[in-house]
Amino acid sequence: MRRSKRELILDAAVTLIAADGLEAVSFEALAEAAGLSKSGIIYHFPSRHELMLGIHRHLAEAWEVELERIAGARAAELDQAQRLRAVVISMGRTAELPELLMVLDARNEPEYKEVWAGVDKRWMPEPDSSDAYLVQLIAYGLWAHDHVHHEPLQAADRKRLIAAALEQIPT
Q1: pLDDT tens profile 139-153
Q2: What are phi and psi of 97, to 5 degrees?
Q3: Where is the signal peptide (predicted)?
Q4: Domain at 55-167, CATH from 3.40.1280.10, 3.30.300.30, 3.10.129.10, 1.10.357.10
């Protein structure tokens, strides 16, 4: 199936972020990366804010699709343990740099933050459910580890830590 121009633009933006960070995303650079005109980019995203919001939505939707694939169902059809299992497996991998940068960027803009909060509300336990929330924090640590630690986790260690986190999920 052929991708829409909007998807092409968003994928190109993610590639730019992966290579050079958020600052690399300009209408000019994006037009070149997507093989479209600047006016073609502006047609879909009339402002930088709309473009960034689109990237946040694009990545958050991709993450939710991944969670649904792992869990085998939508969040509303699962219990907390099943949702948390999908979160641990998903976040057990190393964060892609664009995902990490966009999640960090969302902290500064309520509209961006709400995009990610929607996925969190559907899939993650509330902070008051301490055992489940502790497992979620472990998943966050696995996800961000290789970007904040001087040495990445070895595959065998990551696999062992994911298994240990899964064992801690309250039933």
Answers
A1: 999 999 999 999 999
A2: -55, -45
A3: none
A4: 1.10.357.10
Spacing of C-alpha 110 from chain mean position: 17
pLDDT digits (tens, 9 = 90+) for 96-106: 999 999 999 99
- Round to whole Å and give the CA distance between 43 and 163: 46
3-state secondary structure of 129: coil
CA distances from 135 to 69, 127, 140, 148, 165 (A): 20, 11, 9, 19, 6
């694939």: which residue's tokens?
69
Q: How many CA atoms lie within 13 A of 19 on its CB side?
A: 11
Fill in the DSSP letter of residue 73: S
Handedness of CA 112, 94, 14, 122 (dihedral sign): negative
CB atoms within 10 A of CB 136: 22
Superfamily of domain 1-46: Homeodomain-like (1.10.10.60)
